[in-house]
Amino acid sequence: MANCHRNNVGSLVLDNHHTTKTTTVGSHFRIWNSLSAATIRRIIFDSVSCGASSRYNHRRRDADEFASASSTARSDSFSSDEKRQQQQQKHEHRSRQNAGSEKLSDLLNMAEFEAEAETKKKEEALEELKQLVKELQQGEDLAKRRAAAATVRLLAKEDLEVRGTLAMLGAIPPLVAMLDSEDIDSHIASLYALLNLGIGNDANKAAIVKVGSVHKMLELIESPDGLDSSVSEAVVANFLGLSALDSNKPIIGSSAAIPFLVSTLLSLDNKSSPQAQQDALRALYNLSIFPANIPFILETDLVPFLINLIGDMEVTERTLSILSNLVSIREGRKAISAVPDAFPILVDVLNWTDSPQCQEKTSYILMVMAHKSYGDKQAMIEAGIMSSLLELSLLGTTLAQKRASRILECLRTDKGKQVSGSYATVSAPICGSSSSCPKPDGGGKECLEEEEEMMSEEKKAVKQLVQQSLQNNMRKIVKRANLPQDIVPSDHFKSLTSSSTSKSLPF
Q: Are 407 and 367 in contact, with CB atoms under 8 Å apart?
């Protein structure tokens, strides 16, 4: 080791060979000389650092062992903490799962309990309805049947499901059979029960008519003891509900129901309530939709009554709806034309009403009648329809404008034919020759007066129509502006309306 510290390379290599022979020494020198410079440097470096490197390696091994032990200890401590956290998380997760499972189980149990309760409730309700139908079918105890009918009326008033269930259980035939009794209270109870069973249920409406209810209701109407007003109102309400179904319209219309409804509507002695009259009018409208029922309606006095009823804002629209159905056949148009002042009343509707529905229905009635009869066209023109149609073609709805244009086209075509036959000789200029008019020395005025007198009636009519249209427009503008209705137009406006032509209309 001392030799290494003294860096005595020669001694390191040669001291161990002092007893050898000279030849041996020479051979050593030959070996030394044969080593390269790099090899020598490596040997020297290893010799110098041999002790230090060994000590360094030993210390490094100790440090590595300590670090390894420390890391092992730390990893052991960390792994234990992680294990505890993982176990705690697993425990919490299991707790949450258990809590969720318990909550889900509670919800399922609650839902099952509610479903069972609902099922039990429905079963009890079904048993009650079955018992109710049994009470209706007991023919001996009339009071019990009447009470059951009153219960059916209350239960079926607002519950659509109950209506269908009662019909399937067979409640309709015994209710209709109760109309054969002589007890007025039983009649009323059964009629209103049937009415409520048919609300919103077409199958029930068809079943009620199928078992012969219409015939039995008419027998109540024709009772020799006189018709009670409450029973009459209940019968009218039933006819209104049953006539809403298309398959029931021909059955009800071919019976005596239409004359009964018309008599209820025409009742002037206050025997019928306003509600019964409204129901009768609506029922007649339902029946008038079916064309085969129109002849039965025309056999009554309904058409004159409806035309004279126009003007009442509450019933005008429905009245015009019925008339719109009646004009679909020739007999209906004749019945309307035969009513005095029918066309002035219908034309006046276009002037005073602002309801788009009323305007459209009135224009439809007039359009159909104008296309079918020449006499009706003349009556319309005499009633002043031209100005109303001009105004409607400008201010009405799209449908009303189209119908007004078609009426105007029809009237102008026939009027042009009449004018071409009556004024064929007045096609040349009136003052075209010197022989027909005086000379310009003061005679021009006489020529103008003669031209004014010989102006065609058509031009005068058009001028008058334009003036009326402008005045009507002014009244509507005043009305919409909430100005006084008796406002007096200025002289300037009068001069405009008197000198305006069709070219000045606001297109």
A: yes
What are the residues whose beta carbons fall under 8 Å from the beta carbon of 451, sequence distance 6 or more? 430, 431
Contact in structure between 156 and 192 (CB atoms under 8 Å): no
Task: Please give the Cα distance from 25 to 237 (Å, whole number).
Answer: 148
Q: How many helices (H) and strands (E) does the chain have?
A: 27, 0
Q: What pTM value is reported for the model?
A: 0.64
pLDDT in tens, 345-383: 999 999 888 889 999 999 999 999 998 877 888 899 999
Among left, alpha and beta (phi > 0; psi -120 to 50; other), residue 34 is alpha
Handedness of CA 106, 111, 116, 117 (dihedral sign): positive
Eight-state DSSP code of residue 224? T
- For 185, the token pair is 């209270």
Rounded average pLDDT over 118-122: 82
Q: How far, in Å, CA of 26 to CA of 33, rounded?
A: 10
pLDDT at position 346: 94
CA-atom Rg of the chain in angstroms: 56
Calpha distance 137→274 (Å, rounded)? 35
Q: Any idea of the CA torsion for 86, 89, 90, 95, to the nearest 10 degrees?
A: 160
CA of 454: how far to CAs of 111, 158, 423, 450, 500, in Å? 95, 74, 11, 6, 20
